[in-house]
Design a protein that fits this description.
Blueprint: H1 33-46, E1 54-60, E2 65-71, E3 74-76, E4 79-85, H2 89-96, E5 99-106, E6 111-121, H3 124-133, H4 136-144, H5 154-167, E7 179-193, E8 201-208, E9 213-219
Antiparallel strand pairs: 1-2, 1-5, 3-4, 4-7, 5-6, 6-7, 7-8, 8-9
Helix pairs in contact: 4-5
Length: about 220
């Protein structure tokens, strides 16, 4: 007899959430939609949503797409900044194809934002400054992990961590040369607000790269 309980079979097709939050109009979007995105992130933080800076980052190396959750660590006029291991799969894809997209999802607010754009690596100085601001154990963990590479076992990873912990007992390890940030410069930002009866609001903002101006239009849900 199996030691595990019988799985609960959920009727996925029957699952429903009827959104009923506020409306979204073109007038709610700033002339610079990055500012509106910052406001929405601030409101997600104020609403105590779980991991309000989490975003699904999509990349493609030209052969196959990939997507994973990462944490936004900076937003300004230059774009959206996140950090990773430059030897990871996502970094290899970003280095071969600088086009990327991400999605924020805040279920408590019935909101999502899609962002499309291009990426560049942050400077060594900016990467090191952020790395040094992290908790000591997080720094050790990032340095110990050969991200996306095959491990023989969990023990191999823990041994790497322990070796670095002995070498840097206070956790004050310098930023590894293979670790750093990327900045995603948006070319398109879409704001989505859930409404009743699946009559959602979608406002898309597209950047004219010649003039540097954004145009706004409404999309059907």
């Amino acid at each position: 007899m199996s030691q595990f309980p019988e799985p609960l079979h959920v009727d996925l097709a029957a699952l429903r959430v009827d959104y009923s939050q506020r409306s979204l109009s073109e007038a709610d979007i700033d002339g610079d939609p990055i500012k509106t995105l910052q406001v929405w992130i601030d409101e997600a933080v104020a609403a105590k949503t779980n991991e309000p800076n989490a975003m699904a980052l999509a990349t493609c190396d030209g052969r196959r797409p990939g997507v994973r959750m990462v944490l936004l660590k900076g937003i300004d006029a230059g774009g959206l900044t996140f950090f990773t291991n430059y030897q990871s799969r996502k970094a290899a894809e970003l280095d071969s194809n600088a086009n990327a997209a991400c999605v924020f999802w805040w279920p408590q607010l019935h909101r999502q934002v899609r962002v499309e754009g291009s990426v560049l690596r942050t400077s060594v100085e900016e990467s090191a400054a952020y790395f040094d601001s992290r908790p000591p154990m997080s720094r050790l963990g990032s340095a110990a992990s050969p991200q996306s590479q095959v491990l023989a076992s969990r023990e191999e990873l823990e041994e790497r961590f322990a070796d670095l912990q002995r070498q840097y007992p206070g956790g004050n390890i310098p930023c590894p040369p293979h670790w750093g940030g990327y900045r995603l410069t948006p070319h398109l930002i879409e704001f989505w607000q859930g409404r009743l009866s699946r009559m959602h609001d979608r406002i898309e903002c597209a950047l004219d790269r010649e003039t540097g101006k954004w145009t706004t239009r409404r999309l059907a849900p």
